[in-house]
Amino acid sequence: MKKVAKLLTFLGIFFMSTLQSYAAIGLPTLNVGMKTATSTQEFTQGVQILILLTILTLAPSILIMTTAFIRIVIVFALTRQALGTQNLPPNQVIIGLSLILTFFVMSPTFSKINDVAYQPYIKNQITQEVALSKAVEPLRTFMFKQTHENELALFVKISKIPKPKTQIDVPTYVLIPAFVLSELKTAFKIGFIIFLPFLVIDIVIASILVAMGMIFLPPTTIAMPFKLIMFVLVDGWYLITKSLIEGFIS
Description:
By secondary structure, this protein is mainly α.
């Protein structure tokens, strides 16, 4: 996290200083256009640029789906729903907190990618293909630790590839959907456990209201303060965050 913060601070200072230095001479403009290709090579380069832009557009989604973000954001969303507070905390807070915790959990993986792939590549010690292959390995190691055997076996069977003997034999395109499915399964298991105490409070409040003849009073209106008090007393956000992080580290 400290490395990321220093990097962002450096980029911000560099960006501001660059703007100030170019303010006197004016900033250049960028024109994007289309023209008729005069050769097969120009057409191929245009297709390659189009494919690259498509990959860059999907890259954030692909990166998020291969990290701890899935489990964290789903658990926080289910916790908010169990509390019955509707849009509190708001989506921006939940997603922001989930991203921060994701960077915290994934920092050892990102550091390893930086050491074995990115730094050697920018120093021209390895080629782009080698850098990409080395960058995938730490992510694969992380995903294998969180992927269940049943989900992995399912996608191995569907892809109709030979039964892998080791983790190296499992293709990445098979590992990613198995990891996503495993994270969804784990997140909903955690969400079910979180829901149970709040469900008990709802049932108790509803039973009391029915016994008192207050049928038309919504039980959720009376139950929500009790759920909030219980959640605050047990320090719920601390316990949930601790459990999520320890689930990835262990």
